[in-house]
Every structure is written in structure tokens, then in C-alpha cells.
Amino acid sequence: MEIIKNAKMKEYSNMKVGGTAKELIFIDDKNELKEILRTRNNIFLLGNGTNTLINDGNLDISFLSLKRLKKITVEEKIENTKKEDSYDLVRVEAGLDLDDLIDFMEKNDYSGLENITGIPGSVGGLVNMNGGAYGTEIFDCIEEVEVCKNDGEIVKIKTTDLNFKYRTTEIKENKWIVISALFKFGFGFDKEASQDKKNQREVKHPLDLPNLGSTFKNPEGTFAAKLISDADLKGYRVGDVVVSPKHPNFVTNVGNATFNDVISVIEHVKEVVFEKFGVKLETEIIILK
Fold first, then answer.
1. Does residue 167 carry a catalytic annotation?
2. What are the φ and ψ backbone dihedral angles of 231, each rounded to 5 degrees?
3. What is the 3-state secondary structure (H, E, C) of 233-278?
4. Which residues are annotated as active site (predicted)?
5. What is the pLDDT of residue 227?
6. Is 284 a known active-site residue?
7. Which of 26, 34, 173, 283 could bridge across to 2 with cysteines, CB 3.0–4.6 Å?
8. Looking at the structure, do residues 163 and 136 belong to the same domain, yes or no?
9. pLDDT above 70 covers what percent of the chain?
10. What span, in angstroms and rounded, lies between the C-alpha atoms of 25 and 116?
């Protein structure tokens, strides 16, 4: 493992916001987790930093990264007389970027996750929160998740024995660490669908500016972006944080944003949307104070 003392977390945040951490730990082997959990009290699993807002100042936190765990292994091939009934079971480690998993699927003609192409983040981060888009969730293709529990025990849990729903899981609620996931992939990669979703993100999302992806969960029956837009909050600004005119469920850093700037924007959006429509928006991002 590698340990960086007094790590500048702004450098590891997609929002480019964050203070100085006590340490940032990169592990090279899952078995190192037990020692880390035994010897540290305040641990935060960072992932790719794509959906976590990190506080400014000095942070008495041991940040943990699994980004070096990125192996992909085909564990089993199931061949049936009909090709459409055939599938492979593929073990993917948590540190792999989703983009790299989609590339692997395309090369091997695997299907199932084309609709989530382009979501920024690691496989582990998406599994933790049951990430998804356009009607597809990552758990649609998962058979089993390997996790490290709070006492350092590493176990494999079948999806049928896990609680998960829209944008949350039992893993997230218990603060377990995702080590790997076993995917069940059928065949017939839909390149057109995958490219379409990637193009839509590039056109609709403010990818040219630091951001944390979708700020709020979609309330039942509607979209957070529509509510924010209908509340005339596009372009609302505090300091260097702006509600994106391109996609109002994104808040962007247009300069030297601070944690408090982001929080002020989020709270204002919540307040105005509730006043106008009676809807309480819930954040999808993780806020680390």
C-alpha cells in the first residue's frame, strides 16, 4: 500500500473542492483492508471522487482508495444451444473505471449496461449506490458482490441476499467496502445505444467544468432538473458555484469554489423548490463535512 500524508484532497475531487486530509491510502491488495480498519478510526472510501463533496480545511480523516484494484476475470462461461441464452460470469474489481468496463464489454460483445455508458466513477462507487441512468441500474447485471465488512471480514454476498433500491444499497447504509462484483453478461453489445448515451451526456451535461454529476435524486414521478428549471434557478450563483444552465441538476465550479459555496447553492435550491412545488429534494451526492 501507499500512504500519502497531508494529502491535498482538492486534487482528488472531481469538483476540485476539498481540504487537507490526515492521509490518503492506496491499497494494492484487498487483504490490506483488515489492517487499515484495525488501526484507523475515521476512514472514508473515496472512489473516484466523482460524487463526493469534500469539506475545506484540515480533515482528520484517513481517505481510502481502491483505484489500483482493477482486474477483470471471466470466471465462468455458460453456453446454451441458443446463443441468446448463453452468458459469461465476469468478476470486476472495484477500482476499475466504468468507462474501462464498457470498453471491455464492447471488445467481448457483452451486453446489459450500455445505457449507463459515460457515467463518471468507479465500478465500486456505482455498486455502492446502485448507480444508473436511462432505465438501467448497475445491479441489473450483478449476481454477487464481494465486500469487506466493518470488522475486516471479506465475504461474497449473492444479489438475492442484498437489499438495494433506487440510488442506495445495504452496502452503502452499512458503510461496507465494495471489493468486486460478479456480473452476468449476455451477448450482443449495442454500440449504437452506448454511443448515443455517451453523446447525450456530452451534449446535455456540463462536462467541461468541475462538477459532481447529478446533485439531487429524482423525486418519484418527476425529474429534479425539471423542478429546478421550473423554479427559475438555472444560473443561480454563490461565489464560484453555479447551477448549470446546461443541466440544472448539476452544480459547477467556475473558478475557485469553496465547500460552503456549494452547500449554500444546494440549500437554496432545496428551499425554493419546496416553496414552489412542495417537493423535498434529496441529495444524490455524498457530503463529507
1. yes
2. -85, 10
3. CCCCEECCEEECCCCCCCEEECCCCCHHHHHHHHHHHHHHHHHHHC
4. 167, 214 (proton donor), 284
5. 98
6. yes
7. 26
8. yes
9. 100
10. 29
Query: In whole angstroms, what is the distance from residue 109 CA to residue 130 CA?
Result: 23
- Three-state secondary-structure class, residue 36: helix
pLDDT band at 83, cuts 50/70/90? confident
Same domain, 152 and 171: yes
Instruction: Pick the catalytic residue from 62, 65, 180, 214.
Output: 214
Contact 251, 54 (CB under 8 A): no
Of the candidates 68, 167, 201, 237, the residue annotated as catalytic is 167
DSSP reduced 3-state for 182: strand
Enter the C-alpha cell of residue 134: 436511462
3-state secondary structure (DSSP) of residue 3: strand
Average pLDDT over residues 268-274: 98
Residue 253 sits in a domain of what CATH number? 3.90.78.10
Same domain, 105 and 147: yes
Residue 220 covered by a domain: yes
43, three cell numbers = 476512514
Contact between 37 and 152 under an 8 Å Cβ cutoff? The reply is: yes
Give 80's pLDDT tier (boundaries 50, 70, 90): confident
Contact by Cβ (8 Å): 133, 127: no
214 catalytic, yes or no?
yes
- C-alpha cell, 8: 491535498
| C-beta atoms surrounding 18 within 10 Å | 24
Asked, for residue 197, whether it belongs to a domain, the answer is no
Q: Looking at the 3D structure of the chain, how many domains does it have?
A: 3
Domain co-membership, 23 together with 78: no
DSSP 3-state assignment of 24? strand
Residues 215 and 256 in one domain: yes
